[in-house]
Write a structure and sequence with these properties.
Blueprint (H helix, E strand, L loop, with lengths): L11 H25 L4 H6 L1
Length: 47
């Protein structure tokens, strides 16, 4: 499954939650990059 879209079988509520989670992760990555000067996306994927 692609991390940019939920599976085709998901309900609209799951799609909304997935979209919000992706946005939150992107915001955290951007904030950490400006604060720490490094990309933490790989670390978040491991979690």
């Amino acid at each position: 499954m692609d991390a940019s879209s939920p599976a085709d079988c998901c309900s609209s509520q799951v799609e909304i939650i997935f979209s919000a989670l992706c946005s939150t992760v992107s915001d955290l990555v951007a904030a950490a990059m400006s604060w720490q000067g490094r990309n933490i996306r790989g670390h978040l994927k491991q979690i």
